[in-house]
Amino acid sequence: MKQKTILYFPVLNWEFLKQRPQQILSQFARNGWTVYFCNNTQSEKPIEQVEPNIYVIHNFESFMKDVKHGKYKIDVAYATWAKSAEHFDKVNAKINIYDSIDEFPDWEMYEEFAVNSADIMLTSSQRLYDIRSKMHDNVHLVRNAAPSEYINKPSNKPKEYEDIDGPIVAFVGALGSWTSTYLIKKVAEKYPTVFVGLEFGKQCPSNVINLGCKNHDELYDYYAQADVCLIPFNTKTNITQSASPVKMYEHLAAGTITVATKWHETDLYPSAVLTAENDEDFLAKVDEAIAKSKVEGFRDEAKRIASENTWEVRFKQIEKAIEDYTLKSGVVIGS
User: Fold this and answer.
1) Is 334 within a domain?
2) Are residues 39 and 79 part of one domain?
3) Which residues form the Spore protein YkvP/CgeB glycosyl transferase-like domain (predicted)?
4) Which of 104, 329, 297, 63 is nearest to 200 (CA)?
């Protein structure tokens, strides 16, 4: 049997952060699949092997011509952006997977086509599962997950933390429209608070220590050496209600308590993620979290939850969805 192949359409660049697509595709590669990851930034650079079994495509148009002429056979075509599902017909893969991971208003016009084009639908949150299940008969809830390499990894105090007195509160991520900078600012009035990430439409409050962007490989120390990590999202938006925050699972894997605004996805692990109904409650939960962070055994509990929710676990769900589809449909992959 030949090595099975999966093609990911251009949405983001391989080296840009390390998000759900890269995590899932890395699991495919580690399980013996050949992965073709099409970068969003196009250039004339040749195909580049970045990890065992993972090849970054820099010229999507050229690659698609090679696919059309039979140079590459694709078993699974994988899309995480509804608009990119327009490429499904050009690939003629044996299985089309659409992974519904966000609910952005600008994407809505493409959703129906993407869903109808998919053989298998994945969803990253309960809300998205409920929505897509009304549109498709083969939908699977596959939440975001924790990186297993974090769970037993020793951490080093970041140099920026060394001169901070008192408990450290951290917000790591993008400051987008869904983020409450008001809450971050209020927390910073009481506790030293750091921001690691990208200003994505909102500015870091002036009383917060802005450490800028870091490579994904560096984030672990900023999580693990903080006393509390924050997820201060605006829960009145569908963007938030449909979100499965990757950072929550990374906090858990680092053994750090989380304080989050309350919606279904943050309410799943109450022993390690404290959720708040309103602004006042959020600030109270930060106080509670700082006290809990000092309790012996807490980090072990957070890591226990993470170990049950790794990307390896999520891959097994996807692998089973593919196996079930092949049995039902008679499609043969890897041949």
Assistant:
1) no
2) yes
3) 184-319
4) 104
